[in-house]
Write a structure and sequence with these properties.
Helices cover about 40% and strands about 20% of the residues.
Length: about 575
């Protein structure tokens, strides 16, 4: 793995010195701010002190007035409302938050929800969902985290007398659906100042707008912040601007007074907690359990948890999700093992630039997870395929810097359908086109992939000396949270460090270490999956890349760990 240091411009060096003076922070903290495009006192204040007052007016979003008025009409006239959403975490949290919000404003029997079945209906608005709305006598559909490309289906719903409000964050096509209102900051004709909201986030803006227009208590929508934060973390969107504010306060709510459903899911998911829930905990622990329902069974199981009214209900649903997730993990593991076996048995694999594996009985719900794990192992553009409803279907994942979508676009004549973006995509292939698609995909990737893109890289934000880690540094570094895209957890490059001699193995192949650097002071460190370095590091000087996991900063003695990402042993003692 190649180590690289992030650089700043000469102009930024001047701004860095100004930040040091204006904020009274260390050069390292100022460097981290510059790398995050925070270059003056006011920007730093907004970054370190997120405020709900800085949320943009929801009425800056195109069609917001239309959406609010139509929703109010439905509530006033006691119309039947269907809340429709995607089956992933963003869609599920969006439906749950909108349901909980409207449940305070209209009669429960007038509210319905619908999540499509991943296996029978696929992604987005389905004709089955519209038929459900028709049969239930629905007057208004609020469509969350999907719908922006469903021109024909929305037209069909509207022709049945079902009005549609679309709250979607995906990139629109040239033609927009003929809906009653379309809330999407990525519309070309929408001047909303922040474009990176999730589907749940856009639903939140609709709730905010409704409460502003009709002078309702703002807690009606602020109570949904823990669900919004869950959607932001799970959907891997930038945690900047409005998303940073929503995530900051959403995590605060999750840690202090979470919704009944999330609380039970947290309780059952964390056997031992010694710190607050962070974005990484949502990504790796909470979100997979919510997602597992839609991957293995039906997403309604997760939705029932998130809208549960009593602790007894929530506990039952949380246990079910926990069990479903365990089942999903077993399927993941088996599928990954089978995929690796297929790859290792392919004598031509070493000469290829892509990984494409297919087995007809793999579970459609886990192929995306397996593709991501194969990218980690082999670091190539990867597609994992299975058979479903007469088609070869699956998920693709890319490596950093390679545009996967463009490569698939070059193979479109062999694809039945596909969609996605530069880093991830879904696709379906008619059986007779499978072999030629695999060949063409390999050819195009080989043509488009540069040697630089093939090399796995890890970037460090800055060098760090161990003696720079003091209470003030840790307190300020803690305020860089919540971390996520465009504000990733800082990675530091430590040079010429050693273990103090008290290194030992813990858990399943991890190393507990105590690092020193030109002094006797020791700094606690963890090297996960690093047990194979146990003998190599004894009495050795080494460089390492690390993150700092800060668990508590309130006391005189902050609790933290240096989390080692990679190690390079120096050639001399």
């Amino acid at each position: 793995m190649k180590w690289l240091l992030k650089n700043i411009t000469e102009e930024d060096v001047v701004l860095k010195e100004k930040l040091i003076h204006e904020l009274g922070v260390s050069a390292n903290i100022a460097h981290l701010l510059i790398l995050r495009n925070i270059k003056n006192f006011d920007e730093a204040k907004k970054f370190f002190r997120p405020s709900l007052d800085d949320l943009h007016s929801p009425f800056l979003m195109k069609d917001m007035d239309l959406a609010v008025n139509r929703l109010h009409q439905a509530i006033q006239n006691k119309e039947k409302i269907l809340i429709y959403g995607d089956y992933d975490v963003d869609g599920t949290t969006a439906v749950a938050s909108m349901y909980l919000f409207l449940n305070k404003l209209t009669h429960n029997h007038l509210l319905h929800y619908y999540l499509p079945n991943r296996f029978e209906e696929g992604y987005g608005v389905s004709y089955q969902g519209i038929e459900f709305a028709k049969n239930e006598g629905i007057d208004l559909m609020i469509i969350l985290d999907c719908g922006i490309k469903e021109v024909e289906k929305i037209h069909y719903a509207q022709s049945l007398g079902i009005d549609c409000i679309i709250c979607d964050h995906h990139l629109p096509s040239e033609q927009l659906p003929n809906a009653t209102a379309i809330l999407n900051p990525k519309r070309k004709d929408c001047s909303y100042p922040y474009k990176e909201l999730t589907g749940c986030g856009i639903g939140f803006k609709l709730m905010q707008a409704y409460c502003i227009q009709y002078h309702l208590n703002k807690n009606l929508y602020l109570n949904m912040l823990d669900l919004v934060a869950t959607s932001i973390a799970a959907d891997i969107v930038p945690i900047t601007d409005e998303n940073r504010i929503l995530t900051y306060y959403g995590l605060k709510k999750m840690n202090e007074r979470p919704s009944v459903g999330l609380k039970k899911l947290i309780d059952i998911s964390f056997t031992k907690r010694n710190r607050d829930i962070k974005v990484s905990d949502i990504v790796f622990i909470i979100a997979p359990r919510i997602n597992a329902a839609g991957r293995i069974d039906h997403a309604s199981k997760a939705l029932q948890l998130l809208i549960a009214e009593t602790e007894e209900q929530a506990e039952q649903y949380a246990k079910e999700l926990h069990d479903v997730n365990a089942q999903r993990q077993d399927i993941d593991k088996q599928t990954l093992e089978e995929a690796i076996q297929i790859i290792e048995n392919d004598k031509l694999f070493s000469a290829k630039k892509t990984t494409v594996v297919f087995k007809e009985n793999w579970n459609k719900g886990v192929v995306g997870i397996v593709a991501a794990k194969l990218v980690e192992k082999y670091y190539r553009p990867t597609i994992v395929l299975t058979e479903h409803n007469g088609y070869i279907t699956g998920s693709a994942r890319s490596i950093n810097g390679f545009d996967l979508y463009t490569a698939l676009l070059g193979c479109k004549e062999y694809l039945y359908q596909f969609g996605g973006h530069s880093h991830a995509a879904g696709l379906s292939i008619e059986k007779h086109n499978l072999d030629i698609f695999i060949q063409q995909f390999e050819i195009l990737v080989k043509q488009q992939l540069s040697p630089e893109q093939e090399e796995k890289k890890i970037y460090a934000d800055n060098y760090l000396r161990l003696d720079e880690i003091d209470n003030k540094f840790l307190r300020i570094l803690k305020q860089f949270e919540p971390h996520g895209p465009h504000n990733m957890h800082p990675v530091f490059w430590l040079k010429d460090v050693r273990d103090s001699g008290r290194m030992y193995e813990v858990g399943n192949g991890h190393l507990r270490m105590h690092l020193t650097q030109h002094s006797h002071k020791e700094f606690p460190a963890m090297f996960y999956n690093g047990s194979n370095y146990f003998e190599k590091l004894k009495n050795k000087s080494f460089d390492c890349l690390c993150k700092i996991d800060i668990k508590a900063v309130q006391s005189e003695h902050p609790v933290y760990d240096l989390i080692i990402e990679d190690i390079k042993i120096n050639s001399t003692l």
